[in-house]
Amino acid sequence: MIGIFDSGFGGISILSDFHNKAPEYSYIYFGDNINAPYGDKNTKEIYNSTKNAVEFLFTEGAVLVIVACNTSSARVLRKLQDEYFNKKYKNKKVLGIIIPNIENIIHQLPPNSRLGIIGTSHTIGSQKYQNEILDKRNDVQIFSKACPMFVEKIENNKFKSLGFLANIKEEIAHYSNKNISYLLLACTHFSFIKKEIKQHLNPSIQIIDSSEIIIKKTQEYLFRHKELKIKKERNTILYTSGDLVLFKKISLKLLRPSSKRNLKFLKHSTLSNN
Length: 274
Ligand code: DGL
Known about the structure:
Elements: E1 2-6, H1 12-21, E2 27-31, H2 43-59, E3 64-67, H3 70-75, H4 77-88, E4 93-95, H5 98-108, E5 114-119, H6 121-126, H7 128-136, E6 141-146, H8 150-155, H9 162-172, E7 182-185, H10 194-198, E8 206-209, H11 210-224, E9 235-240, H12 244-254, E10 262-267
Parallel strand pairs: 1-2, 1-3, 2-9, 3-4, 5-6, 5-7, 7-8, 9-10
Helix pairs in contact: 1-11, 5-7, 5-11
Bound molecules: D-glutamic acid (DGL).
Residues 6-8, 10, 36-39, 69-71, 120, 123, 151, 187-189 line the site of D-glutamic acid.
């Protein structure tokens, strides 16, 4: 199985793409909704939650886990790989979401581009995207903005609330005078409000949605790592640490229609971030 993990619903955008573009595999998803948003947590809590979540997916049979959470990938993944996963799980792999995104961006951006980035406070504050992009493309000008309320609103199913729509408008206004040509959504939750974000941007600005990149990069990775034997039974199990009824309802709404298939929703209750 391919495991996909996020602090909550954000990774469902990645799961949708996997269902659509690589339907032959079996998937196991874990949304740590009880602990979301990770943006409000300290680094130690994010470290422990991410460790527990990946380990849970390994125990349930995943041989490859995609950490579909920019916050975890930015703050703790490298350390966790070095200190823990690479030592304990030699035959299993964990992939983050930031490096594939950066590899894509440095090839995609034309010379002297002006790039905007939005993400959680942790992701923007880590400077990971900014530093790694500038390291390889010093012609690019980067503007970044943390949007700390977005994840919580999406987790609470407030997509259409007037307060949230006003908050989106307010945060995106940051880019009204930056003359950017590209806006990177550096948070998987933000895929679900792409339309609302676009509405407040100059129409010529192209949105780069990290979710769409990950499937392509994972397929390339699997091609290079044929030793990873992934089950091909076309099943998907979705676990949440939060409220199962709500998780099922929102996940079904967020999974794009063509990606509906054999789905099983389950509650996983033993995880905590300690
Ligand atoms: N979807 C997660 C991300 O990509 C949200 C993290 C959070 O819960 O703050 O960063």
